[in-house]
Known about the structure:
The protein is α/β, with parallel strands linked by helices. Helices cover 32% and strands 13% of the residues. The protein contains 23 helices and 21 strands. The protein has an eight-stranded mixed β-sheet with strand order 13-12-11-14-19-15-20-21, sandwiched between helices. A five-stranded parallel β-sheet has the order 1-2-4-6-7, covered by helices on one side. Helix 1 crosses helix 12. The longest helix is centred in the N-terminal third of the chain and has 21 residues. The N terminus is likely disordered. One of its GO terms (molecular function) is glucuronosyl-N-acetylglucosaminyl-proteoglycan 4-alpha-N-acetylglucosaminyltransferase activity. It is found in: Endoplasmic reticulum membrane. It comes from Cyprinus carpio (Common carp). Belongs to the glycosyltransferase 47 family. This is Exostosin glycosyltransferase 1a.
Amino acid sequence: MQAKKRYLILFSAGVSLILLLYLQGPASRRTPNRGDDPHPHWPHFSDPLRAFIPWDQTETEDYNVRVSPRHKRDDNSGASKCRMDSCFDFSLCRRNGFKVYVYPQQKGEKISESYQNILSSIEGSRFYTSDPGQACLFVLNLDTLDRDQLSPQYVHNLKTKIQNLNLWNNGRNHLIFNLYSGTWPDYTEDLGFDIGQAMLAKASISTENFRPNFDISIPLFSKDHPRTGGERGYLKYNTIPPFRKYVLVFKGKRYLTGIGSDTRNALYHIHNAEDVVLLTTCKHGKDWQKHKDARCDKDNAEYDRYNYKEMLHNSTFCLVPRGRRLGSFRFLEALQIPSTVRSIHQDRILSLRQQTQFLWEAYFSSVEKIVLTTLEIIQDRVLQHNARSTLMWNRLPGGLFTLPQYSSYLGDFPFFYAVLGVKPQQKFTAVIHAVTPLVSQSQPIFKLLVAVAKSQYCAQIIVLWNCDKPLPAKHRWPATSVPVIVIEGESKVMSSRFLPYDNIRTDAILSLDEDTVLSTTEVDFAFTVWQSFPERIVGYPARSHFWDSNKERWGYTSKWTNDYSMVLTGAAFYHRYYNYLYTQYLPGSLKSMVDQLSNCEDILMNFLVSAVTKMPPIKVTQKKQYKETMMGQTSRASRWADPDHFAQRQTCMNKFTSWFGTMPLVHSQMRLDPVLFKDQVSILRKKYRDIERL
């Protein structure tokens, strides 16, 4: 098991570095009406990484100049193998989109924990369908992960079982997951059955068997790899210079005979026990002493003196030499490795370190992320007109949170503004969530409408009517200088306030509860702040979360403290893309919970945005009377005072954390006030002077 863990960490690091070097894509096109000032929210590196060349672009003149004749021969030799256009039925995907069907488990069939995690990740995703008639892709209920005949997880008679499946169709539109294939001593990639025209998502697949733009190469992971969430990377500060105690490390088995022995046996040539520490042990297998050589005792003793995790955390680079199951490439130019890694400039080391952490957190830190990344890659191949660009895959927040169905232009996503050097639009749409009948002109919603409409940045106001009473007559609403559009909420449920309505054409949304009390000045200032942080939630009422060690669960608090982790959407700005992501990305189970409780929709939106950005929301200046004013309104007083309402929010916190697999909320102590706020100077010198009078 320890060997598998070490293999996973090293292989994941290798995959990250490979992706880092080959998947960095070019910037997207610009639109001139967005402005030219950059937003430096994420670091920009002067030494960009080389772009990845997709397999479908290998016929270009530029590719032919850079690729060796041997690689060209390898590409051409696979021309008769499966490709999407020859072994995949696209018509199944045109009817219902990209839906994935998992065969029901057959009685008596055992499934490993790892394979069950894969199936659970699919069944919990937005791609899943229980109806095979709606499916575009099919996944077996038979465990194909471990095809080593000596393994206790090996499933016998798999060939017959697969051929008896009614929907198999020679594997067409099927996806097979595999981690281990073949067995000692040659470790071939034979799975023990004919995959036919099925796609293969496989770890350590060789270049000879890999079918470009059809198969998926996935990292090897152990049964202990978390199903959801996963640990964050260890890079917390951009330390300059980025050098660590060791330049290059490795710790693993030294195979004395057979496949992989030549590679691992060569490591001692560059081990110096100072900044290059490459440790191997001969203790592998029951009969290792029969093959023991003169170096074994010394190697074994030195191997035991070092802690593996300590080495990883304190090394600039980690070496990933081939072992038993990796592809058949030779270990070349071993003596040049130290000089190569020492020649890399510190700026590039920091860039590599940041990118590998991003790739780990975005795609590899859990089984769910590995599975969803696999499905998203296949979806991009199926729906090529909506495929992600390389920039979407290789920039924060990553491909899983960047849905190309929303837009093909990167400038429509808030987290790409800094990369493209564009700004959000200078106007916002206010969306007021109304649940109370109109009975008096003194109701808070009328005052709120007038105050928001006076904002110089307001383009329009949408009243989302989620009240059980019919829509009020048009003359009941106050006259304003901006359009007021009243629409009925879909099914009158809470989640309808976050639907991506076509009426919303501005980048910014000001989300408001009907009893919110805000002045025009407060609206203007909050919007000005949001323009500098368009990827985050910016607003007034703040809340926080905490870990309750007695109950061993997450807690929710509305106490006034020095920090916060949520800004409630009762009075907050956010980008309209998050409405689309809330609707399309989150599972129906969480949205149904919100709708049944008529509660927690604001918490769920905060979870989502923090999961995307890995950052806290932004709290702006707020009068302390806000809380008491909210409590005093008749329309929602019972809701806020109801103890069940507060208990429900505690439950929501833990339910949401369970689905995300981790706690995405981030604490912050930052509050943004206007310049000269509360300073002892003339009020006439202050731009947002009215805020201090409130």
